[in-house]
Amino acid sequence: MTGYLCKYVGTYRVLAEYDRGTNDWVRDESFDDFYIPLKNNYGRIMHYDNDILIIYINGGRKAQDVMRQVKQDNHVKNLVSSGLALKIIELDGELLIYIKEENLPLYIPYINPSTYGAKIKPFDSKNLPQSNKVPRGELKKFEKVKQQVGAKGGYKWANITRQFIFSNCNITLQDLRKSGLNFCNFIYQNNLWEKYLSFLNKNIK
User: Fold this and answer.
1) How far is CA 145 from CA 135, 170, 188, in A?
2) pLDDT of 71-95, one tens digit each?
3) Which of 26, 81, 110, 198 is 20 to 30 Å from the Cα of 97, by its Cα?
4) Residues near 123 by Cβ (< 8 Å), separated by ≥ 6?
5) CA distances, 166 to each of 21, 154, 170 (Å)
6) Within the chain, which residues score under 50 in pLDDT?
7) By residue range, what is the domain housing residue 172?
8) 171 & 118 share domain
9) pTM of the entire structure?
């Protein structure tokens, strides 16, 4: 059941684990390391097997609050014996709650899964970590040039930017991803910013 949590794209933010060595997605047909992050970095929702999910909470106080509130609002004393959880594992400051997917709505109000960026697909490059290097003032210059292609010209701008990078830097697309930098940050870090802006002005019209 690969990609089990992907059905929640559009409702919650669904992320995928990535290869820390290449800073790129894992290319494997059996890949299923998707998860729904909880707000404020409190934990995540993961798929375990079939219709079983795991709610992982990494704060001891938050974990106790969640269990207390779910029991209180559902008028039960024990989540497992009542059937609201299959198994609960408590570690030092961490909590793993195994549940049937049908019971997830009972926990949602208390675990607060992230909805920010819910429409972004898990393998979108926006979900890969990136370092911010370009000063705000320089980015304003870039945005001014980029506006010339309009809202529907993103494909043209991206192609021109790739052309600039690969003609001025001896790298591959895999090298760029591994750097953890987006196009603009990579260009700025390699002292090509002014040359890039000039290149855009000449080619983007």
Assistant:
1) 16, 25, 16
2) 999 999 999 999 999 999 988 888 9
3) 26
4) 16, 25
5) 22, 18, 6
6) 1, 152
7) 132-203
8) no
9) 0.66
